Amino acid sequence: MYSGTDLADASACELIELYRAKRASPFEATQAALERVRARNDALNAFCLVAEESALDSAHASTARWQRGEPCGALDGVPVSIKDLLLTRGLPTLRGSRTIDSAQAWDTDAPATARLREAGAIILGKTTTPEYGCKGETNSPLTGITRNPWDSTRTSGGSSGGTAVAVASGMGALGLGTDGAGSIRIPAAFCGNFGYKPSFGRVPAYPPSPFGTVAHVGPHTMSVRDAALAMNVLKEPDARDWTALPPDASDYGADLEAGLHGLRVAWSPRLGYAEVEPAVARLCAAAAREFADLGAQVEERDPGFECPLDITCGLWFVGAWTLWNGLSATQQALTDPDFAAEAELGARLSALDVQRLHLRRAALGSHMRQFMREFDLLLTPAVAVTAFPARAAGTLPMSPASLLGWTPFSYPFNLTQQPACSMPCGTSSDGLPVGLQIVGPMFGDALVLRAARAYERAHPIPRPPR
Description:
CATH class: Alpha Beta
Strand content: 15-25%
Largest sheet: 11 strands, mixed
Number of strands: 15
Distance between the termini: 14 Å
Structural class: alpha/beta
CATH topology: Amidase signature (AS) enzymes
Shape: globular
Strand order of the largest sheet: 1-3-2-8-10-9-14-15-13-11-12
Helix content: 25-40%
């Protein structure tokens, strides 16, 4: 949390309060964030592109607006980062890939980028991602390995690893990530920050993900209040996304402090099938007990579905195969070996195989809609392990188990499209963060944020040691 000595450690909400009180300026905050980038990015590899000149220009303009008492939006002057899968006007979006030519017109913002820009946020640059966001680790032949700020020998997770590392390290108060099988929640759990995957369609996306209707866009922050503030901006409609939800006029901060009293909460330590590291199991069970202490009615209950790893990976591999077939032979030779291996596995699936996967996904979605009629929230570990050693692309043979077997709690809720977050709930004996996952009913975004805030009040999110 903000200590009063370095603006790089201030939350977005704290920065806005400081600007309003004329105790700090957006230019000073942007300078502090950029100084943190200069100090830490070489070691951690969070940013693949730093837009220092344009960020400082935007910060000057924001400072002038605040001096006039005329901020242009809810995030005016807040330094932010954008995952390098999301189009950003004026900056290349290379998607972690050597197959994309940077020498082209970059004149379009993705919907989420556009909403941040309209709200006055200061875009610091683009954060690292594996090629096309294809895996839960952030490494690629283009940008190398992104490392964990708690222990640089460990992985940051992925695919929004660069964003998670940037936010946890004070390189901008807010970051945009994407989540197709856990890609916000995995690095949030490994890097010890708050990562939020909204209900599918709540944050519009464009272009559509090649991996289909499992990919969500959401924020990484160091406080739940910041995530609610960001969601109020990001949920604005955009006509380019034909799957976007109808407009939502609610204020996600309005009931943020309402607490947990009376909420019906299911606690599932294994989802009925997962193997969990002892430290993760212990800390998440303690967090579930604390939910009861804070007033929730907590019942240990598995939702009652079988592990859907083959559904997720089957659909994921078909998405990789589709992307692969849009590349020339020269481009294919440049790709990450993990992405190439995913595409090869996708080529083995027939149209009948894929249709059966879709039908099984539909049955899972229906099952969870019915289960959530009994409960307001579901608690699970966010990831079954703590951050493992960082490794280069292509280190392990590609399989469903190597791709996602260690994160069995994340991908089911991409298939069902429910809102879910990873919330830090302690550290293991070797000092690595552990994440608790809070899952809500479809469209229950405000409720997930409210529950996370109740836990955060008792357990503020710490920064990594420096």
